[in-house]
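User: Second chain of the day. Same drill as before.
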Amino acid sequence: MSRSKMFKPLEAASELTLALYRRVSTDKQADEGYSLDVQSEKLQAYSKTFTNVREVRDYMDDGYSGSSLDRPGMKRLIKDIESGEITHVIVVKLDRLSRSQKDTLHLIEDIMLPANVAFISIMESFNTDTAFGRAMVGILSVFAQLERENIFERTRGGMQKRVEKGYWPGGGRTPYGYDYDPARGILVPNEQAEVVRYIYDRYLAGASMQTIADSLDLKYEKLVYNIITRKSNAGYIVYKGEEYKGLHEPIISLDIYDRAMDLLAERSAAKLVTKTDHLLTGLCRCGTCGAKMRYMKWGKAGFKLVCYSQQRSKQYLVRDPDCDGPSPFAEDVEAGVIDTLFAVSKEKLDSARKAVESGSMMDMLQEQLRKAETKLRRLYGLYGDGGDSYLLDAIDDAKKDVCRLSAAVERERVNGASAQTAMNAYQKLESIQDVWPYMSVQEKRVILVSVIESITISAGVTDVRLRFGLSAS
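Assistant: Same format as last time:
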């Protein structure tokens, strides 16, 4: 432990300010003997064992989970500790402070000890005024974390079985257009279902999401996007990256949903081909934090590609405020990407072409879908462990990938449309080298956007992911 975090025992004559912290997250905890009143009685009784007490303060969080520090009582406690108003923090049990190992150690080592505040847990019979107590904190917080993960696993296992049988998992917001019937455990279309059908009809007729949002007096077009991309409307349940046929009545047919997803993919690609003087606008992502990257003027030297987490002109695009990913000169990246595309071996393309022509495009798409679903499950697991808000954007992107690939698999199952799309991409890629010097930036972007899925820029490495499932790097 660093010297700055070492706890210095208070002088015997010092007047003490005791902070009594108590928390419950559910009514069940109260029934099991962790009610706020019971905790208060134990804390007040323990506080009477101290002498020379100047003040006893009460801090309470009623109905807040121990997996996060985002609680009003906890925030007030941290503020008072950092302002030097507290000498001791006392809880009935360690998991009342936090169920996260990381948060527990952060509170004790980074908040309390530097402020010379002793931490005491009554039931575990230790305090950080002793070396043994400080060692025990780390050990017991591991078990608190383990218990939280066990609870999470048990809950998730029960949900998984429900979903596999076609029942709605619950635990979140009910999709727009449906009500939840707890007796039957399924979704039931309500009067808003007609609005959902209207949104799909207008969108497939060519209306933009913003136009549809305006016609319904919705504030954001994102609300329309959320409805259109929700496969529960077609009678399916998407849970942890996997799809299951639900028992609920569909609002729209699967065909309408697939057509909407096809149109969405086409419009998304078209959006990238906007009027711009920059070749790779909209294609680049930071390999460190996953945020998008933008062109930024760098004096007379030209332009650099800068991660939005570092540039911060659009706060909603920030993934990690501490991102230290590279900001290379755009000209170098552009040249590298084009050289990489031209250097893709003929053998690799011929191999992929044979897979398409032999009818095994379905295998390729299903493998891509499997990888995308695995990635989504991993992100959900990371979010469940730490609750990091920056992971929500990554989860949203991964869900879009799963949605897109699921639609492609279904299309391929029906008529092999994905095979033709891939063949078109091969032809464009093969023809790039000869015509490239004679094309405008806009013409080049049309081809690049149709061929490149994404460009991920990391320190010393630029990974080019092609739309037909290959890495060109």
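The first strand starts at residue 16 and ends at 24.

User: Great, on to the next one.
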